[in-house]
Amino acid sequence: MPRFEAIAPTQLHALISDLRRRVQFLDADIEEEERKSRVFDPANHSYPMLALTLRERRDNLRTTVATLQKQLETILLPASERAA
Questions:
Q1: What is the CA angle 60-28-68, rounded to 5?
Q2: Helices (H), 1-84
């Protein structure tokens, strides 16, 4: 097994873990902003701008996590299944 293939899954696992933790932090920050403003509907004109920005950042991180997870699954597939 080439060195890259041996290291890549471990690095991807660590990165995915870190990004998921960041998503949790963003969720908590969003909840805090909503609680402080007492506005919980993003469609409401009074919804905090910071919460909207945090939501967008969180959604981008979720998309990144999903992409990395697919890459990890591809790397972990046996070579015979990747060729098929």
A1: 30
A2: 3-37, 49-76, 79-83
